[in-house]
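Board notes, transcribed. Complex of a protein with nicotinamide-adenine-dinucleotide.
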Amino acid sequence: MAHNITLIPGDGVGPEISEATRRVLDATGVSIKWELAYAGADAREQLGELLPQATLKSIRKNRVAIKGPVTTPVGSGFRSVNVALRKELDLYTCLRPCKIYPGAPTIFKNVDIVVVRENTEDLYSGIEFEKGKAETAKLRELVAEATGDKVKEDSGVSLKVISESASRRIVKFAFEYARANNRKKVTAAHKANIMKFSDGLFLATAREVAKEYPDIEFEDRIVDNLCMQLVRKPQQFSVLVLPNLYGDLISDLCAGLVGGLGLAPGANLGDRIAVFEATHGSAPKYKGQNKVNPMSMMLSGVMMLRHIGEAEAADRLEKAIAGVIAEGKSVTYDMKPDGAAVVGTSQVADAIIEKMRG
Ligand code: NAD
């Protein structure tokens, strides 16, 4: 029976990499009935909404989606479509494996880190107070009354919200993932030395959850130290679990360790619904140029195949992608920082399909 899957091309370079990804997924022979849905700039043009109800409905019905990136203009009025999607569908885990494929452009060796990022709260709660607004003045009064601290009159404020329940479920996910995937250590990152009641709560909860998993080593790192250690000796880490903002930053750092954003897949997971997408954004300056690397979205597709129970096809596709990386002939510009000859997005898909036919 065919798998019904929602395909959201996104905007910027999204449509190009989505098309390349759909082609390689179809070439695995797994029967997939694609349901196209829209989000982002293209959705606004066609349907008048950034995140149409029809898109949410399609994902809720199919329970599995794969999505291209979507642009969020910096500092403008509307909130991120990506953040809205994750919150709306309660996709509380962002899972981002970062491993080195031989031939990838990196100076590091043997890196195989899985970043588990909390996806619903922290500084992404969307609770913000704009400079000069009446509600911001009220907040300043409340802070002065409750704590005696003074918030400057010309301040804007974004709330960092961390709950025990969301911390518990993300740390549990990290340990369960470690157990299921034969990983021996979970590292929690935080800044609990400074933010005692938000990151402090995250850390205390992580320590409590860790006691339920005596078979897996647990350690914690202050996030600035983690950054330094990741670039010095990344091999010491296996599963990282982090609140939302640190998780966002650290997953880009880890993508850099393994060869760049073109090789960094991801999944947003809830209890019932999974939305697969690359770590990178819509890279608008490359839109429509058949230039960027589709492999991060394709590797997100590999994760999706495993999720829907098509492990053998997933292995075949991953092997073909790894083969094309190792050969280094049909890869995009980001894989050849030395300026050697490269191909475009759709030619990468051709080479991978060729490899699978093999
Ligand atoms: P970006 O990840 O889009 O791109 C940064 C740079 O990384 C690009 O200019 C390019 O040099 C490189 N890059 C990214 N993807 C690549 C690929 N597949 N192959 C080769 N090189 C690649 O980050 P940005 O420019 O900061 O963000 C652009 C937009 O994307 C913003 O509006 C941002 O909000 C949005 N964004 C969306 C998502 C998502 O949809 N999940 C995630 C991150 C950022």
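The first strand starts at residue 3 and ends at 8. The pocket of nicotinamide-adenine-dinucleotide is lined by residues 69-72, 82, 261-262, 277, 280-285, 292-293, 296, 334 (CB under 6 Å).
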